[in-house]
Amino acid sequence: MIEISHVDKWYSPSFQVLTDCTTSVAKGEVVVVCGPSGSGKSTLIKCVNALEPFQKGDISIDGIKVNDPKTDLPKLRSRVGMVFQHFELFPHLKIIDNLCLAQEKVLGRSHDKAVTKGMQLLDRVGLKEQAQKFPAQLSGGQQQRVAIARALAMDPIAMLFDEPTSALDPEMISEVLDVMVDLAHEGMTMMVVTHEMGFARKVANRVIFMDRGEIVEDAPKDDFFGKPRSDRAQKFLSKILSH
Amino acid sequence: MLGNFDFDVIRRALPYLFYEGMTFTLTLTGLAAFGGLVFGTALALMRLSGLKLLGRIAGVYVDFMRSLPLVLVIFWFYFLVPYIGQWLTGASRPISVGAFASSLITFIMFEAAYFSEIMRAGIQSISRGQPAAASALGLTYAQTMRYVVLPQAFRNMLPVLITQTIVLFQDTSLVYVLSITDFLGAASKVAQRDGRLVEMYLFAAVVYFTISCIASFGVRRLQARIAIIR
């Protein structure tokens, strides 16, 4: 579904952010990307739907090359959902309108259809009653669930999560993770940048460990948590799992 | 001393002052603010487009307009537009452009320079995650601007935009150089005709002051409301 091959990205010759990254996410697979901050994991996931440009290599989604100038990027992006660290709901629009905007303007759905779909998804993330509120009136966890619903409203073929719980208060993390776990169990193709190793243990098929712009380890979940092959991954795991 | 003043001259001139003068002033202010905002937003988008040439053109335009006195621009424009029109259409003689059209175009072009700086600040005040989220949903650049960035930029900058419009409202009085009957022009004509300069100019000052003051007060109320919403 998502093919990443030999991707290099740099801001200047001396400032390399991604080095020869190669991996893939198969249909229905859940892949967790972890690593220390500054390791390039967020950059990598943003390259997948071309929110960040890259200089070398190829990325394709469902067979369509992201870095081909002829690719209709808006159309491709509309088929891939993305959830951001800071939610990025549109603060000037009501919750329901946040869910309807792209459905109507990009997919061309009628307003009624978009609202029906939107309400259905809000119900699913447990926020039907908040439909007429504005984002600022919701808690962080609620906002992030709305953001997930907003991405799902586009009927995506895959979902990208960029540290979806990093900006949340601890007591709100689980309500967001619950939604993500459900999604994974339903067979959604997911690429998730996160430090939530509990989530990785529960639903990930594979775990990718990145450090200094490189993919250091790319292993099935049990292998990764069992006995990581690289020193750096071992150190990282011992740091975040020690308490 | 006040006994020598004839305030009745104001009462008698009221219909003329407001129906002719103030109507003109408000129409010019409204249209120029709207046109300036549209054109100014376009300039701001050009400057932020990332396309070097486009940004340069907008930058030069803004700097140029901001380094000229408004009166001079009004004056020059009034005399130049007919010739520019002639040159553009290839007509055999200068195109006649009314004083109103000429002053309106001037104010739109002049205000656009100021509004563009305000809108630029407004657009830059939106976090980069907002356009990223919009593109991630599949919105095109134009849709992202139209539905996500500009509404927020406009709302954030509304108090400043209105303040600039109040300045514009006062500046429209400069059309007197074209002998147009705006509010101040009307007051001035009555003043000259009846020899009541002090009364008429005093009254004009009071009217400008009152309207601007009420508008400023409105801006402060608005600012408080926006602060709550955010």
Automatic annotation (TrEMBL), chain A:
InterPro entries noted in UniProt: AAA+_ATPase, ABC_ATPase_HisP-typ, ABC_transporter-like_ATP-bd, ABC_transporter-like_CS, MetN_ABC_transporter-like, P-loop_NTPase
Claim: Nucleotide-binding is one of the keywords in the record: yes
A Gene Ontology term for the protein's cellular component: plasma membrane
Pfam families assigned to the protein according to its UniProt record, in alphabetical order: ABC_tran
Domain of life: Bacteria
Main location: membrane
Topology in the lipid bilayer: Peripheral membrane protein
Chain ranges of the ABC transporter domain: 2-237
Protein's job: Involved in beta-(1-->2)glucan export. Transmembrane domains (TMD) form a pore in the inner membrane and the ATP-binding domain (NBD) is responsible for energy generation.
Family: Belongs to the ABC transporter superfamily.
Name this polypeptide is given: Arginine transporter ATP-binding subunit
Gene name of this polypeptide: artP
TrEMBL record, chain B:
Keyword set, alphabetical order: Amino-acid transport, Cell membrane, Membrane, Transmembrane, Transmembrane helix, Transport
Alphabetized Pfam families for the sequence: BPD_transp_1
InterPro entries: AA_ABC_transptr_permease_3TM, ArtM/GltK/GlnP/TcyL/YhdX-like, MetI-like, MetI-like_sf
Principal location: membrane
Compartments in which it is found: Cell inner membrane; Cell membrane
Function according to Swiss-Prot or TrEMBL: Part of the ABC transporter complex GltIJKL involved in glutamate and aspartate uptake. Probably responsible for the translocation of the substrate across the membrane.
UniProt protein name: Glutamate/aspartate import permease protein GltK
Record organism: Bradyrhizobium forestalis
Biological classification of the source: Bacteria, Pseudomonadati, Pseudomonadota, Alphaproteobacteria, Hyphomicrobiales
